[in-house]
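Batch manifest, entry 17 of 40.
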Amino acid sequence: MDITQLISSPIFIAFFIGLFSSIHCVSMCGSIIGTLSFSLKPEIRSHKSKMMAFIFSYNFGRIFSYMLAGLIVGLIESLLTLPLGEAHGHRALQIISALIITGAGFYIAGWFPSFAYIEKTGSRFWKTIEPYGRKLIPVATLPQAFLFGMVWGWIPCGLVYTALALAATSADITTGILIMLAFGLGTLPAVASTGIVSTFISRINNLHATKKIAGMLLVFIAIISV
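Output type: structure tokens
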């Protein structure tokens, strides 16, 4: 696989979106996992290995929800392309996906703040399931942490929806699931690391040039994907 094929691979693009959305994730999800970490029992917080086990359980639950969403989008995509035919329908979804990724790129760069309004798409569903997450607090076991992460994974987020738009163009349910897995893994370093990594990314977040570079790279990848 040459560099062009790699860059245009939807799984690579999804990972890249996740990695650079970390700038957004630190402010949105970093505080959530920080709060959850401090809500754990002192005997858990005092042992780094136990603490990390809970943090990763939260995040694996979150990523599992992303993969489930990728499965659902893949099923919906197969139905939406029927009226236009598989080839034309898939191409139309590719163009829509590229436009959404471009919007995400401009959003990260700070040129398109209105992109945040896309998060309202899932706000009604989030209000329905959010109370189930609150019932799991305080989290005392790893399965509880995983289940809380699954609820957390559905929090409205424009960049998650961007990855889902990409998954909708995969024309294959398995690939759609892998795209969302790649996106989730891309967000993992910043969200899971409440210490050194997230502090480092928070500092980067203050550099306007970094945001613009990340945003324009997303726009470039959107063009390549089409």
